Records
---
Amino acid sequence: MTEPNPSPPAMAPVSSPSGEAGLSRRRLVRAGLAATPVMAALKSNSVLAGDHSCIRPSTFSSLTAAHMRISRGREIQADFHCRSQAYWKDSDLGLPPGFKDQRFLAPGLGFHANPRDRYSRLTFQQVLEIQGNPHNAALARHVVAAYLSAVSVQDDPGRVLLTRSQCNAIWNGQGFWAPFAGAHWTPDQTLHYLDTVFGSAFL
């Protein structure tokens, strides 16, 4: 990051999922689990990673503020479509033919930020394959994964984790964006959220 930012609240470590995350629709966490961290309450497909993490920014923010504990009888939807960077590297399921072969910064896709001209010629596939974090590559990989997930469900409001326009906002602001009304996240907060959902992007 180019600017120092306050670190977000600490959370239990999350392992990187390798495929699609999802729970059955509208899973309820009820009274007996009210005092249990949500990390332990919801079943996952990869060492407490993925299924429970597939929550939208507003839910993540409220859970973080409550130290990842849920209130009695609260209903949480955690089956949004959030396939990870690791998944999309090797799959194009649900995407238009050749979609990953077009340039990340192609006109009409909504992505404009280009740290040190690093992304001018890179395709979506090439962004997914970048190693480490040169020129904010960790954020780029997460954003591309979220964007491809949104494309694959056509921004279906009941399924999409982050819409295409939200992915544009995250990347163009280099992590500074407004995830919901009244909230303004820093790059550190944004990456913390994305790491929780998708697993660490520092590959």
---
Amino acid sequence: MYPSLSVIFFTTASGAGYGLLALLCLLVPLGSLPRTPLFGFIALAIALGAITAGLLSSLLHLGQKKRAWRAFSQWRTSWLSREGVAAVATYVPAALFGIAWIFFGRIEPIAGLAAALLAVVTVVCTAMIYRSLKPIPRWHNPLVVPTYLALALMSGSLWLALLLAFFGPRPEVNVLAAASIVVGAGLKITYWRSIDTEQPTSTAGTATGLGSLGAVRLFEAPHTSENYLLKEMGFVVARKHATKLRRIALIVGFALPFLLSLVPFLFSSGVAILALLLAASLGTAGIFVERWLFFAEARHAVTLYYGASAV
């Protein structure tokens, strides 16, 4: 599949925002985070800012942007529509939670719980947009949803740990960040092994129904020039490039942030802040690369009609 930068930015930014929002709305009522209005304002501004920036960037991928509102009407059958409804709905309890916290100094646990649940639901809906597509076997994989959730938690906890370095470190949040990196890396590696070893679900023979007659191959291209299907669904990344990018994603997005997230246990003040800033930045960059690969390595069944032997 063609990796659209707007969608990659959307899933990366909104994932971090929803992860941070869910952590704030769950941990503040439990007393695990500072309750000062200043911390609430900055933390919620970053979370909601990342979510909003991601959602706005997703509109760039729409062909008819003025008809974007119609996507909300198909929530009964479309995961894309459900994502939109859940994303907008999340703002309501998040706003109530933030207003009560910042302006009145009160923590509303019910609003916080609702916002956290809707944040999780939105990430699940985003993942299900891809998980539900049977014509793309590499997306129709049971590891897609848990990986999206784990990476949202990972990026959210890294940015939360950075914020806490200014407002009073909480070692448990650093432990959560490190643990979420391990879980995220484990799921991603398992996913890559899964798609590398999976058997093809469709071939040119099964797609055309001519497999019983023998080997089926393309006699002549359906089109004499590139078209939408080839551009969007026929994108191919060389295996050597994919391998290199996987290593970059693992080192930049997981290994280095994990090591840097441990620095606050050894050093304090400026060194810890710098380490956590690098950890959050590198973790987000690594997820961006991982998300690019998620799209680039996907193979749509329609490519069987354009010369692909199997998907």
---
Amino acid sequence: MVNNYSSVWNNCLKTIKKNVNNQSYKTWFEPIKAVRLESNALTIQVPNKFFYEWLEEHYVSLLKQTIRQELGDRGRLEYQILMSKVAKNNNASETNKSGGPGSVNTGNIKNPFIIPGIKKVKIEPQLNPSLTFENYIEGDCNRLARSAGVAVAKKPGGTSFNPLVLFGDVGLGKTHLAQAIGNEILNTQPEKSVLYVSSEKFTNQFLESIRNHAVNDFVNFYQLVDVLIVDDIQFLAKKVKTQEIFFHIFNQLHQNGKQVILTSDRPPKDMDGMEVRLTSRFKWGLTADLQAPDLETRLAILTAKMMQEGVELPHDVVEFVCYNIQDNIREIEGVLVSLVAQSTLNRREIDLDLAKEVIQNFVTQMSREITIEFIQNLVADHFNVPVEKLKGQTRKRSIVIARQLSMYLSKNLTEKSLKAIGDQFGGRDHSTVIYSCRAVQDLLDTDSMFKDTVAELEKKIKLTMNDR
């Protein structure tokens, strides 16, 4: 029998390496150190409690076979968990001494290391319970991301969307969607542990664990989570040590079938200052972008928020707010809060004048320059036709009129060239724009009802021009 514990373990590793893939070997076996050989029991040191439990769950048979090959039928394996100094002071006995539990030859390994509070602690999810799928308005701007979120919520860790990376500009609903996933999981699968944390808080917790010599406890805690949601992951850029610890936590969660959800203001490929090995893992699952909501979605969001808060606003105020705030859902909600506050405190009726005063605090310069996209949306909404039809080749009369009117208004109310206008309508040339403008003018001269329609649309447009 070989008595040198290092030699025994090295021989075991040779057998193990032939039976697992290279990545698994590097992740789960290279970090292990043999520390003792006594009475046919080889003691190995593993980095943390999670590491031990993973070996216990996935490699028991292989370990049993290799240890018996080296030490005979009575050979067994015992574990020693490498703990932080703080944990060592609170837990003097680190190694299994009981003989039975922890020995490979029984085929029934149980964890002999009880770290007080780790397994039984209830993880507070840190979620806002009001951020749910029910009040997350779906539109073309976020349909893919929301659908993926629903799929993840139904089967966390069990879809190909792991990790799920949600990216987009500020105020487009990334945090809302990420937390909605977490809330839905807690609602339907309460046995799951969910944790939402900002990247800043994660970093601060890690630094605190370094100061307290409790890095292993920090890692152990995060490895207990079934669903980890990290907000604004891009702020880990250039934080080398924090990225390293997150890399290991991510790996172990992912390999254990746990769900990871990340939000960012940019896609993984554009995360400067982030290690390549991290960004490559972010690409393993699904990367879904959230774009600025179109007019219809903004109107739906504000209307839903009004219903949620029990507030009523005049229709022209709702339109004015949504026309002027185009790129930030959070600002739309902020305007609503400000309108209600101003109305209550100053005893003023909520009207267009009050809306203009409030919006000046949110928009440096209100939308004086009307966009072609805005005109297309407004006209399409009025004629009840899809915006895409205005840009397409459909020759249906109602759509042709709406298309021609959109071109007419774009020429008169924007500073865009005829070519630029034509480009926005499916790549049409300038001569088509000229023809459309003449056709609309002919209708204005001969059809009073059509003239009234154009006047109404122009009035709505001018609401956004701040009476200039």
